[in-house]
Specification:
- This protein is mainly alpha-helical and 1021 residues long.
- Helices cover 69% and strands 1% of the residues.
- The strands form two sheets. A two-stranded antiparallel sheet has the order 1-2.
- Helix 35 packs antiparallel against helix 36 and helix 37 runs antiparallel to helix 39.
- The N and C termini lie far apart (167 Å).
Length: 1021
């Protein structure tokens, strides 16, 4: 059966589709306008904030708003964008179509637009086409339209378009509501950027009011209408603030108060709403503006009878908005202004006068709670809330843990917002006091909050420089509640506190702080091994325990460090600390020195740690100071073990080698600048031992460049000489029955030969006076050490007497060569050179030359009282007398050693003069243990040597033998009777031994000092 034709117009589907596509483009334009307006409005806010920050804006006396012409211009651009969006929406072909009740209400709001566009709208055309297609009958098989579509396909497309266009119509109407709200908001913000009270300002505010009022009247049953109502009330209140406050004579009230009353009436509709969510937020905004009005209108006495704020509003202020961190500016303003108004009501209400205002019920607690909430949020009105709390001492709040912690939180916020150090200090002290007051009030179920309070207290104490208290609280929390929130942070603060205290001036406190710092660091390692903080703790724990000087303890602490925290730096620090402790232990007195087995084990552990860390460093970039220091320590370990090959390998490593660093011409990570002298002091003797003379000379040159202080350089050279001597002594200590094994002889020979070659090379260079002094002093050290040839326990085992004599001769010639120089530097050192020569000549028996040099030194009036020089002169005279062949010469020299003599302008005091002068200079205390020429031990040394000189006279001159022995015995007896302690055990032993010798020579029982007890002290000399 033939099909009836398609209804007329069904082939217009393609045209409808094109119009729908055009509508999509139009909606994108609408969205673009809205977004552009929002962005411009935001930009204007930023301009206002920047102008305020830089002082480029002014503040209105009446409204308190910022004036910014540039911001006003941008706000106007936003308003223009909103107007353009409104025009686009209202001109849309579907904006006024049929729809649900909301759409009907929208049509009712704009009847003219709706009637005019109803038949011509796109939605109406789609409906008409759909009715025509549905009216077609007999559709049994698809039949193409002239456009190529069947009736079924056309019907489906038309229904889809109808549904989609209805949804878009609803969306456009929502856009319209949004745009009109934004338009009112934008107009208000235009006004906020203009001078308050100006014609432009008033026009913008009044237009904003008109837009919001129209919105409310059209959509009062919708939330959009209520939003507009609040905005209308806000703008009306802004108008009121710009009006005169003086009452009108005829009306009885000011135009300002009249306008405020109008704004309050506008806002009353919203304040009376009920419901949660968005409605609750709208009520908060309405109350916030209303409170601004009331606070501006009321005078002091009027607050006593004020009833505009009801109990529902107070309850909403207390309970609404959520936690402090979630409150926006409207909620914060609502809460603060409620508290402020209530405080004024309380202040204005006199007890017993008139009916009691209902707002006074629990007013004090309400004010405190509201102000605390705003202050804790620490945003809008925070400073005002803190000021309100500070001025509300008469308002009581129950003293509970929670309340006091709230008070502490307010003080912390005030501390963070403080503009001066004094304000910050006061706020911090308030917070500390509140927390300390709160902690004893906590209940058992508040433990978690208590521990948070303890952490906060730890931080505040540390921030305030109360380091001992911070360390104590932090340690307590970390020790007893390690799983509590903030416990790890508290431990780190405690560790930092002890670390700072370890650098304090008080020695006892500094020592204790270093120990406690290490303990906290170890606790962090044990309790939180997986936390990144363990890396810092590892370094601090090693540094703290390093000062203990206990290798075993250092290694034990390193053992506690989790593997993931044992990076290269940690291994290097531990290795350096362990080696320093080992080196210190090796130099300890014999009764305190650890066993050789322990020393060897610790040394190997230190070497292993250093090797591990240096291996990880080898593949990195430029080494830091730590890596170079570690390499230096590894060199020292290798040298002390006799492994010169390993020492050289590490010293000259291409990446972290100390010699590589110091010769690179650069200072990677500051290593060469801070450590060059230490590096060269290790490199120089190593190059000498390995007979690398050219490098030794280079090290010498660099050392002279680094050590600019001549005295310091000389001391360095002498120390290097002593170190080589120490190595020789260590080799000598391995001798058995005065004989070295082959390896030790080889090493000793290498040290001596290399040292000789180096010294000769330095001397041949004719370098500075410091270098030549070092050469002479080193020869003197080596020569003096070798004078004990044949002593199986002495250094003579490795320095034969033949070499010792050669070294002394070279020392003498070096010093003499220095004396012939006429330069100023040498003249400055002449007293020191002559003193060394005198000691050297005494050692080799050239006493006349020794005395000549001492006479030159003591012939200067400025040096005649030099005790060291007088000791040296007396000893030269004594040894010269003991070595004299004839009795007369011996007697004269020994007598001079006792009573002194004059050599031209020089005066030698002798042992008697030294003893008398030192005794007069200071009273010798009983049991004195001091040593050295200036100590009381020098008095006893002088008296002992005096007695020895008398014994020598007795042995050299038989005719005066008895008299000399008697005088020697009397000298000892007098000294003993005056000072029974005799300067200590060793000195007493020497006196006793000498007295026994005298008694034996005189044919008396050799009882020593025991025979002096009870003997009357003989008189005379």
């Amino acid at each position: 059966m033939p099909q009836p034709p398609l209804p007329e117009g069904a082939d217009e589907l393609d045209q409808v589709a094109a119009e729908i596509a055009a509508l999509d483009r139009e909606m994108r334009r609408i969205n673009a306008h809205i977004q552009q307006g929002k962005l411009r409005r935001e930009r204007a806010r930023l301009l206002q904030a920047e102008a305020a920050k830089q002082g480029k804006a002014s503040i209105s006396d009446q409204a308190g708003g910022w004036e910014s012409p540039e911001a006003a211009a941008v706000f106007n651009e936003a308003v223009a964008s909103f107007r353009a969006a409104e025009r686009l929406i209202t001109s849309s072909p579907i904006a006024a179509g049929k729809g649900d009740a909301a759409k009907a209400e929208a049509r009712e709001a704009e009847p003219a637009d709706a009637e005019a566009g109803e038949q011509d709208s796109l939605l109406a055309r789609v409906r008409q086409l759909l009715e025509q297609v549905d009216a077609a009958v007999g559709e049994r098989r698809p039949r193409p339209t002239r456009g190529g579509r069947s009736r079924a396909e056309a019907s489906r497309l038309l229904r889809e378009w109808q549904a989609g266009l209805s949804e878009r119509q609803s969306g456009l109407q929502n856009k319209l509501l949004e745009v009109r709200l934004l338009l009112g908001e934008g107009l208000f913000e235009v006004a906020s950027a203009l001078p308050v009270g100006s014609a432009q300002w008033r026009a913008a505010v009044e237009e904003s009011i008109a837009v919001d009022k129209a919105m409310y009247e059209k959509y009062r049953t919708l939330l959009a209408g209520q939003f507009a109502r609040v905005s209308q009330g806000r703008s009306e209140a802004a108008l009121a603030r710009a009006m005169p406050a003086e009452p009108d004579a005829a009306a009885g009230e000011s135009a300002r108060d009249k306008q405020f009353t109008k704004a309050l009436a506008t806002l009353a509709d919203v304040r009376a709403l009920s419901g949660g969510g968005t409605v609750e937020s709208l009520r908060a905004r309405a109350y916030n503006v209303s409170l601004e009005c009331w606070l501006a209108m009321l005078s002091g006495d009027a607050y006593a009878s004020f009833d505009g704020l009801d109990d529902a509003g107070v309850r909403l202020a207390l309970a609404g908005g959520g936690p402090p961190e979630a409150l926006d500016a409207d909620w914060l303003g609502f809460k603060y202004r409620t508290a402020l108004l209530l405080s004024r009501v309380v202040a204005a209400s006199q007890p017993g006068q008139g009916p009691r205002n209902p707002l006074l019920a629990n007013a004090g607690r309400t004010i405190q709670r509201l102000a605390l909430t705003v202050a804790k949020a620490n945003r809008d009105f925070a400073s005002e809330a803190r000021e309100l709390l500070a001025n509300s001492d008469d308002l009581s709040l129950a003293e509970s843990f929670a309340a006091l912690m709230d008070r502490a939180g307010v003080a912390i916020n005030a501390m963070q917002a403080a503009a001066s150090d004094d304000e910050k200090l006061a706020a911090r002290n308030d917070a500390i006091a509140a927390i300390r007051q709160a902690l004893p009030l906590a209940q058992d179920d508040e433990l978690s909050e208590v521990n948070r309070a303890r952490y906060t207290l730890t931080f505040l104490l540390y921030d305030g420089g109360q380091l001992l208290d911070a360390a104590a609280v932090g340690e307590f929390l970390a020790t007893w509640y390690p799983n509590a929130p903030g416990s790890l942070q508290a431990a780190r603060i405690a560790m930092a506190s002890w670390q700072k205290l370890s650098g304090s001036g008080a020695a006892a406190l500094a020592t204790e702080a270093r120990i406690r710092c290490g303990r906290v660091a170890e606790q962090i390692l044990e309790t939180w091994p997986e936390d990144p903080a363990s890396r810092d703790a590892a370094a601090i724990a090693i540094s703290a325990v390093a000062s203990s000087g206990d290798p075993e303890r250092i290694l034990a602490v390193f053992g506690k460090i989790p593997e993931q925290a044992r990076d290269a730096d940690t291994s290097l620090r531990a290795g350096i600390a362990c080696w320093k402790a080992v080196a210190s232990s090796q130099a300890a007195a014999s009764n305190e020195r650890p066993t050789d087995e322990d020393l060897a084990r610790w040394k190997q552990e230190a070497a292993t740690l250093l090797d591990r860390g240096l291996t990880e460093q080898a593949g990195g970039g430029q080494p830091g100071t730590l890596a170079v220091a570690a390499a230096l320590a590894r060199c020292q370990i290798a040298v002390s073990s006799g492994d010169l090959a390993k020492a050289t390998e590490v010293l000259e490593h291409p990446v972290y080698g100390p010699w590589t660093i110091v010769t690179a011409g650069e200072s990677p990570s500051g290593a060469a600048d801070s450590m060059a002298e230490d590096i060269l002091q290790v490199a120089l003797p190593l190059f000498i031992q390995t007979e690398q003379i050219a490098k030794a000379e280079a090290a010498m040159t660099k050392l002279e460049a680094v050590a600019t202080d001549p005295a310091r350089l000389t001391a360095t050279y002498l120390r290097l000489g002593r170190e080589l001597q120490t190595q020789l002594e260590q080799l000598a200590s391995t001798a058995v029955d005065g004989r070295l094994d082959a390896e030790s002889r080889r090493r000793a020979s290498a040290i001596l030969d290399g040292f000789e070659r180096f010294l000769d090379a330095v001397a041949a260079r004719g370098s500075g006076v410091q270098s030549r002094l070092w050469v002479a002093s080193t020869y003197l050290e080596l020569g003096s050490a070798g004078l004990g040839d044949g002593d199986a326990s002495g250094i003579g085992v490795v320095v034969p007497r033949s070499k010792a004599d050669t070294y002394l001769a070279r020392a003498a010639s070096s010093y003499e060569a220095l004396l012939t120089a006429a330069d100023a530097d040498t003249k400055r050192y002449e007293p020191s050179i002559r003193f060394k020569l005198a000691e050297l000549y005494r050692a080799i028996g050239r006493f006349d030359e020794a005395l000549d040099n001492m006479a030159w030194i003591l012939g200067d009036a400025s040096r005649v009282n030099w005790v060291d020089g007088q000791f040296a002169a007396a000893r030269i005279l004594q040894q010269a007398g003991e070595a004299a062949d004839d009795a007369a010469t011996a007697n004269a020299l020994l007598t001079a050693a006792i009573v002194g003599r004059s050599d031209g302008p020089a005066r030698f005091w002798g042992w008697g003069g030294l003893a008398n002068r030192l005794s007069r200079k200071a009273v010798v205390p009983t049991g004195c243990r001091r040593r050295g020429p200036q100590g009381c031990g020098a008095v006893f040394q002088a008296r002992l040597e005096l007695a020895r000189c008398r014994v020598a006279i007795a042995e050299k001159t038989p005719t005066g033998r008895d008299e000399a022995f008697a005088k020697a015995e009397r000298d000892i007896t007098v000294t003993y009777r005056l000072y029974p302690e005799l300067g200590g055990r060793e000195m007493r032993k020497a006196f006793d031994s000498l007295l026994k010798q005298i008694q034996k020579e005189r044919g008396q029982p050799a009882d020593g000092l025991a025979a002096v007890e009870g003997v009357t002290v003989p008189q005379g000399t």
